[in-house]
Amino acid sequence: MNILIIDDNEVLAESIAAYFEDEGVDSQIADSAEEAKRLFDHSKFDGAVVDFYLPGTDGVSWIEWALSKAPDLPCIVYTGSLSLSLADRFQQFAQNQVRILQKTHSSAGDLLNVFWKKS
Question: Is a pLDDT exceeding 70 seen at residue 80?
Fold first, then answer.
């Protein structure tokens, strides 16, 4: 399994990647949606953990882009916002369950469990 982690918080992204590695899951980190697009175009990913607030293009726009290329890609919006509601932005991707998890309430283990349930 190879997961793309998109977050401009380097410490958090590396922490998630380290946890995934301990669990036998490969991952790559991008600190922006633009970098994530380049990685996505050159590697196969089994899922993505995406921060909503990124420099430049926001995380949800990246997910919309990625799902237009890989409609079955499991995605998690991993955000610090407690009031973020994005269901209406993903209606066109009804077959894909985009999950929203809050950083303050979810661990790296919670993230990984979403991907294992989909695999």
Answer: no
